[in-house]
Automatic annotation (TrEMBL), chain A:
It holds the Pfam family ABC_tran. PANTHER family: DIPEPTIDE TRANSPORT ATP-BINDING PROTEIN DPPD (PTHR43297:SF2), OLIGOPEPTIDE TRANSPORT ATP-BINDING PROTEIN APPD (PTHR43297). This is Peptide/nickel transport system ATP-binding protein. The keyword Membrane applies. It is found in: Cell membrane. GO terms for molecular function: ATP binding; ATP hydrolysis activity. Residues 6-257 form the ABC transporter domain. Belongs to the ABC transporter superfamily. Keywords: ATP-binding, Cell membrane, Membrane, Nucleotide-binding, Transport. GO terms for cellular component: plasma membrane. It comes from the Bacteria. InterPro entries: AAA+_ATPase, ABC_Ni/Peptide_Import, ABC_transporter-like_ATP-bd, ABC_transporter-like_CS, Oligopep_ABC_C, P-loop_NTPase. It is a peripheral membrane protein.
UniProtKB/TrEMBL annotation, chain B:
Belongs to the ABC transporter superfamily. This is Peptide/nickel transport system ATP-binding protein/oligopeptide transport system ATP-binding protein. It comes from Cytobacillus oceanisediminis. One of its GO terms (biological process) is transmembrane transport. One of its GO terms (molecular function) is ATP hydrolysis activity. The lineage of its organism: Bacteria, Bacillati, Bacillota, Bacilli, Bacillales. Keywords: ATP-binding, Nucleotide-binding, Transport.
């Protein structure tokens, strides 16, 4: 049995607004083992980013709150940590890469200074050594003239270079877990290929566990070992990457795979999922996907299914696959 | 007399050649980035640099390329939202690149645009009815007809007639894009320029809009110029595809030739970089080194030589000419 790195159990993160409670994450369970890359897939508003922010405990300047569940990192419950203790973890053992490389770097500090801050803080290096380590990290992520780049400001770099700096920063303290929230969405395809290649190399060299949040099924197929599909704040399917693409169970996963135009396949029409993602104010009563589902049953509209094992290593939240005795209730 | 008219359209030897709906010749757009005061040399960003193509009636031409390659600028020049620096645009055989603002306004009835951002391209203070009927007001369609048409258009794009009295904020991204499409269809255009119409949408919604665009094309015999960065989306929707790099079209061919048998090293690299949703597929990937050079200071010779794995001395010095290597397959590369 592989060593468990992160264990999110029954996590519930709710947002309290003027229009009532928004259940952004509603009972999510995800486990990530050492050296494993787990993809979290879903469309906007499904709660995938809020899950990652909950792990990092970065919700304090939002109206969001973790109301239930547990997040264990190497056996330690992160939810019981104080803000001071969390600071020891963030950027050190657990690091994060954000979607927008422009907005996640500080525009008024030089690249070197931003990198060295984390290095000095967590690795306790002195200034000289921290600078050397920063330059070495930039070299590692393939930035040319890295000894000059440390003295430049973020605006002087292109989008791909900035994302490389973000990755260098995240990897600087050799994290055990890397949370990457849409790391290549803002980049062009040729640059995306460079960054994915880089993340693969770093993963092989350092055995880092990666939680990769994305909406791009192509990126999932290339990077992940296991995939969690989310819809409306809940996990609807979880399995290894091969099974997901070859034998998807949940009608949402199937619709999602069918919706993507595939290079070289000349389909005249795409399968599409009718309707829209439900808004928090009019969440359906039974299964959250029922109004858009092509296989909808009577029970779907009334009762919500649970996440159940359909095969070893494959779970699915759908009435089509529930045990007969549970359906009978 | 009739014979003469046919021969003017290039009909020779019994092969019927249809005049293109839109023809673009040597189109250029340079943006100046300083004033050139007191003898300082004026500097330019060559956003579009010598682009030529045609679009036949009823077909979809896709333009792909990475950010900053000039694909959107090209689209905006065709709409005459930007004035070309040089070059000509012919619409149904008539030159439109030299018309003034008033003359072009009445012509815009024939070509309409669908924009990328469904949140920014609809006026939040107007009701859907006003948004969709605005082009009809400009083109002088009587009021009763307008009211009737708005409701019909909304049904055509998959919304309902009762949506006409709502405001844009009441709709989701996909529905807003449908409103934008209804607005573009309002004046019965012949050509629709769609600039990244699905890139802001979720995948399940993206496929709905792509299917809608295909259905509408069939129903109203529309011609599309489809501008996007996503190669799979462009392959799905287009008949012919042009690949742009730093303001130039480097390769243009019908969809099958371009995707199955790409010639230009940039097209090859671009295609190999697209992640494919099949975990068993292990492909040889061409990873390009470095970033796209700045268009204000493009490399000499072939602009792609700084990243090209096959660059030679010739590529560094000489600008390649566009060559037709197979019928309808154009490549601009020294290798051919």
């Amino acid at each position: 049995m592989a060593e468990t790195m992160l264990k999110i159990e029954d996590l519930k993160t709710y947002f309290y607004g003027d229009d009532g409670v928004v259940k952004a994450v509603d009972g999510v369970t995800i486990t990530i083992n050492k050296g494993e890359t787990v993809g979290v897939v879903g469309e906007s508003g499904c709660g995938k980013s809020v899950t990652s922010l909950s792990v990092m405990r970065l919700l304090h300047d939002t109206p969001g709150e973790i109301v239930d569940g547990s997040i264990e990192f190497q056996g330690k419950n992160l939810l019981s940590f104080s803000e001071k203790e969390m600071r020891q973890i963030r950027g050190n053992e657990v690091a994060m890469i954000f979607q927008e490389p422009m907005t996640s770097l500080n525009p008024v500090y030089k690249i070197g200074k931003q990198l060295e801050e984390a290095i000095q803080l967590h690795l306790k290096y002195d200034k000289q050594k921290a600078r050397e380590h920063a330059i070495q990290m930039l070299k590692l992520v393939g930035i040319p003239r890295s000894d000059e780049i440390v003295n430049e400001f973020p605006y002087q770099l292109s989008g791909g270079m900035r994302q490389r700096v973000m990755i260098a920063m995240a990897m600087a303290c050799r994290p055990k877990l890397l949370i990457a929230d849409e790391p290549t969405t803002a980049l062009d395809v040729t640059i995306q290929a460079q960054i994915l290649d880089l993340m693969r190399t770093l993963r092989e060299e350092s055995e880092t566990s990666i939680m990769l949040i994305t909406h791009d099924l192509g990126v999932v197929a290339e990077m992940c070992d296991r995939v969690v599909v989310m819809y409306a704040g809940k996990v609807v399917e979880e399995t290894d990457v091969y099974t997901l693409f070859e034998d998807p169970k949940h009608p949402y996963t199937r619709g999602l795979i069918g919706s993507v135009p595939k290079l070289g396949k000349n389909a005249n029409r795409l399968d599409s999922i009718p309707g829209n993602v439900p808004t928090p104010s009019n969440m359906p009563k039974g299964c959250k996907f029922a109004p858009r589902c092509s296989n909808v049953l009577k029970v779907c509209l009334e009762k919500e299914p649970v996440l159940e094992k359909v095969e070893a290593n494959h779970t699915c939240r759908c009435w089509l696959y529930q045990n007969t005795e549970t359906v009978g209730v | 007399m009739q014979m003469l008219a046919i021969s003017e359209h290039g009909d020779c030897g019994g092969v019927k050649m249809e005049a293109p709906l839109l023809e673009v010749k040597n189109l250029k757009k340079y943006f100046s980035i300083n004033k050139g005061l007191l003898g300082r040399k004026k500097k330019f960003v060559k956003a579009v640099d010598d682009v030529s193509f045609t679009i036949k009636k009823g077909e979809t031409l896709g333009l792909v390329g990475e950010s900053g390659c000039g694909k959107s600028t090209t689209g905006r020049m065709l709409m005459r939202l930007l004035d070309p620096t040089e070059g000509q645009i012919y619409f149904e055989g008539k030159e439109i690149s030299n018309l003034n603002d008033n003359q072009i306004r009445s012509l815009r009835k024939d070509f309409q645009m669908v924009f990328q951002d469904p949140y920014a391209s609809l006026n939040p203070r107007m009701k859907v009815r006003e948004i969709v009927s605005e082009p009809m007001v400009i083109h002088g369609i009587p009021k009763e007809e307008r009211m009737e048409r708005v409701e019909k258009l909304l049904t055509v794009v998959g919304l309902s007639a009762y949506h006409a009295d709502r405001y844009p904020h009441e709709f989701s991204g996909g529905q807003r894009q449908r409103i934008g499409i209804a607005r573009a269809l309002a004046v019965n255009p012949k050509l629709i320029i769609a600039d990244e119409p699905v890139s802001a949408l979720d995948v399940s919604i993206q496929s709905q809009i792509l299917n809608l665009l295909k259905d509408l094309q069939e129903e109203f015999e529309l011609t599309y110029l489809f501008i996007a960065h996503d190669l799979s989306v462009v392959e799905h929707i287009s008949d012919r595809v042009g690949v742009m790099y730093l303001g130039k079209i480097v390769e243009l061919a019908d969809k099958q030739s371009l995707y199955q048998n790409p010639k230009h090293p940039y097209t090859k690299a671009l295609l190999s970089a697209v992640p494919i949703p099949n975990p068993r597929l292990k492909r040889e990937r061409i990873i390009l080194k470095g970033d796209i050079p700045s268009p204000s200071n493009p490399p000499s010779g072939c602009t792609f030589h700084t990243r090209c794995p096959l660059a030679t001395e010739e590529c560094r010095n000489k600008i390649p000419q566009v060559k037709e290597i197979n019928p309808g397959h154009y490549v601009s590369c020294h290798l051919f």
